[in-house]
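Quick entry, no commentary yet.
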Amino acid sequence: MAEGRQRSIQEIESDWWGPPPEGATRLVSEVHRLRAVPVGLLTAEDLRLLLGQGEALPVVVPLAVEVLRGDPFEGGDLFRGALLKRVLGVPGQHWRSHPEQHAALAEVVDDLWQAVGAVADDVERFLDERWTHLS
């Protein structure tokens, strides 16, 4: 694991939250826990959860984009594509402040869109023929 990936979000940001407050929800407790995990060990589900909370976006977004480069339909523990949906939902202010992250995501989205476009006619024909054969 590269040196930077051995550091946690709290180490990267120099912002230690400590334990979750007493009576914290499971989600709050999980975010506290994930902030202490080395970023190289965060799973797609961990990233999806952190993104959903708007947590440490400058750290989490590039990690999520890296996962999406390998599989743009990665879903974590939810549905296929859930991680992409979360990244696409990152507020515009983040993208304006981090144009290099926006460009990296745009590459993933462009590749995905081209792939969809390349098979769109075939998919439409398949769906039309499927209904014809089933009638």
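second:
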Amino acid sequence: MSSTVPCPICKASLQLTPDGEFNSWVCPAGHGRAATLSELYERMQEDEIHRLWSLAKASWVASEPVTGRACPMCDRLMVTITVPTDVDEVDEGQPGDGADTGLETVDACVVDEVIWFEEGEIDEFPADLPDAQPTAAEDAALATIRRDFATSLDEATGTLPAPGEASGTEWPAPPVVAPAN
């Protein structure tokens, strides 16, 4: 990969641009933006990301593209896919999944896991919904898992918990080192 990331439309150097927790490479001429699959979790609903990636991989496996836009990261041709969207964040076909309400076309590089959105396309995808806060019961279960994991790790490595975190075990006295003659 070169030190510059070219726009797949005009070849201008894309600018890495933060937008809150979401980072993408934006074309200075306004043609669009590139984002990694992992960054999309900061911006889009998970079910659309899962569907987008599933469609991209299936399209790539069916036939590696011979025409289209080059990936800004590696210059391979990207697959062009049309992604159905909906307002819920439930994976396709699962209980609670609503009807599709739109279609968005994007380009994807399956090798680099990069998605190219023309100007405004990313805004057409439903925004990520906030995750629900854990219940008191879920918090208690997580605390138990953390404690059990720490205990197992301590036993496996032969270490003891930090002072104040001891689980009823007394700390051994420090070893006595004889002075050198």
